[in-house]
Design a protein that fits this description.
single chain, 224 residues, alpha/beta, Rossmann fold, 2 domains, 4-stranded parallel beta sheet, 16% strand
Length: 224
């Protein structure tokens, strides 16, 4: 039986992939599935616009088709969930998007969720997706930290901004749980949760947890 989860970073920044890989540590347990993380070399340095998200769909689907014979489930590790529905047509294996999984997980942890985005331009894209999911009434707010994907590795500037935005979402917008709106933020989850004192969802972890559940319960085929 296939027992591998492949997490694909659709941007070409290796630092983001490394942060994602580090966040997989809690799932790498004896008897658990193999979890591999890969960088999509054809992607931009950061998926920061709708055009960026659209541009990675074709190479992302090719990567999924190529890896499908040796992979039990896929996770698209970008909060835009680029190519999610096309990818589900490219393979019968489960394909999970981190935005969808992160938001759905947040709904189990609190009534209203807040999203911490990278740039202001990301917010309209997120709002469209949240509305399409039908959960807009549970959104407390979506606020940016004003940093691009490639800047997230600088902890001296990133963590402070995330804590500031997270506390504003909690105190001014009424968020009961926070969702990190970029896979490149993964390394800051524990510190952000300690500072905000409310649950923080790292969406790649949420998606991988769901992928493992799909494999273990035998839900190995994509629902068409």
């Amino acid at each position: 039986m296939l027992d591998r989860v492949l997490v694909i970073n659709p941007n070409s920044t290796d630092g983001v992939t490394q942060a994602i890989d580090d966040a997989m540590t809690p799932f790498r347990i004896p008897g658990g599935p193999r979890i591999d993380c890969m960088t999509l070399r054809e992607g931009p340095p950061g998926v920061e616009s709708q055009s960026d998200a659209d541009a990675v769909i074709a190479p992302l689907c090719r990567a999924i088709r190529d890896a499908a014979p040796e992979t039990a489930a896929f996770v698209i590790a970008c909060f835009s969930d680029p190519g999610l529905f096309s990818a589900r047509e490219a393979t019968a294996r489960p394909v999970l998007g981190i935005a969808e999984c992160g938001i759905l997980t947040a709904l189990t942890l609190g009534h209203r969720f807040g999203v911490i985005s990278i740039l202001a331009g990301s917010v309209p894209r997120h709002l469209r997706y949240i509305a399409a999911m039908g959960v807009g009434q549970r959104l407390a707010g979506d606020l940016p930290i004003g940093l691009g994907v490639t800047e997230l590795g600088d902890a001296s500037s990133t963590l402070g901004r995330m804590i500031d935005v997270g506390c504003r979402l909690r105190d001014q917008h009424g968020a009961h749980v926070l969702v990190m709106g970029c896979a490149g933020m993964a390394r800051y989850r524990a510190e952000l949760e300690d500072a905000a004192q409310i649950p923080v969802v790292e969406p790649t972890q949420a998606a991988v947890a769901m992928a493992i559940g799909r494999i273990r319960l035998g839900w190995g085929q994509c629902l068409r």
